[in-house]
């Protein structure tokens, strides 16, 4: 009898060890596994069945969804035909798998949005470059058969188109690199009061040569925030240059800085013709421009689009509005 009891005890321990390993593999706690050692011999098979059943349920609830997500991620790697990646929608789940599914779907959507934006940018570039090239070709062809008195006009057209192409290529190159540079460059603390003061001091003489006054209304104390100083300087130079381009001799461009509700607010105003109501948002689109004909070829139409991209990357906002007394107002709000 003692031998039989010893054998039963040994089998019980063996069953418990096997069950403990299985339960540990399915993720149960050490306390639950240890408690199984105190079960009577007859309860071990039932507990084992429960453990196996729970592992199958867990495999169905966790393993299969993860396998489906993995297969979706690898689908296009193995597919003969290109196409869009589509992850299973498991966002109705409130666990980590549901959140993983949502994150993957959002990531893919953002990726395709970026691809679409790049394709649209390429199409816009092709369109913008095509216009001055067509004008250049026409002027060169006409120059071959033109009379001597017609040549100066044609040469001026060629110079204007070359200048426009040069500006286009430079701005397109800068815009194409902007995304990666915004990610790579490290943000640092800066004083916006000091930065705007230096920019206005630098631009004022050049604008004065064109008869346009540049005034700055800045706080007497530092306005501190974290950002990319060179990129933010690029924004404010763009806005001031934009305002000056719509100004006449004797006009004034005003720059103001203030703080409100934990933000820094920069306002650039001009006394120009203002912006048509339907174009208040379009002015930030790539290559959009309503400049006077005398400035044809001097601007690429990318300045405000680049400015919006930089401001958005800093978690801020930028918009345009018209002044009641005439002229346009461009507003930049940045977290301070």
TrEMBL record:
Subcellular location, record wording: Membrane
EC code(s) of this entry: 2.7.13.3
Domain of life of the native organism: Bacteria
GO cellular component: plasma membrane
Keyword tags: Kinase, Membrane, Phosphoprotein, Transferase, Transmembrane, Transmembrane helix, Two-component regulatory system
Keyword Translocase: no
Any matching Pfam family: HATPase_c
All copies of domain HAMP, residue ranges: 60-116
Reaction it catalyzes: ATP + protein L-histidine = ADP + protein N-phospho-L-histidine
SUPFAM superfamilies assigned to the protein according to its UniProt record, in alphabetical order: ATPase domain of HSP90 chaperone/DNA topoisomerase II/histidine kinase, HAMP domain-like, Homodimeric domain of signal transducing histidine kinase
Domain (Histidine kinase): residue spans on this chain: 124-336
InterPro entries: HAMP_dom (IPR003660), HATPase_C_sf (IPR036890), HATPase_dom (IPR003594), His_kinase_dom (IPR005467), HisK_dim/P_dom (IPR003661), HisK_dim/P_sf (IPR036097), Sig_transdc_His_kin-like_C (IPR004358), TCS_sensor_his_kinase (IPR050428)
Enzyme class: transferase
Gene Ontology MF terms in the entry: phosphorelay sensor kinase activity
Name under which the protein is recorded: histidine kinase
Organism: Falsirhodobacter algicola
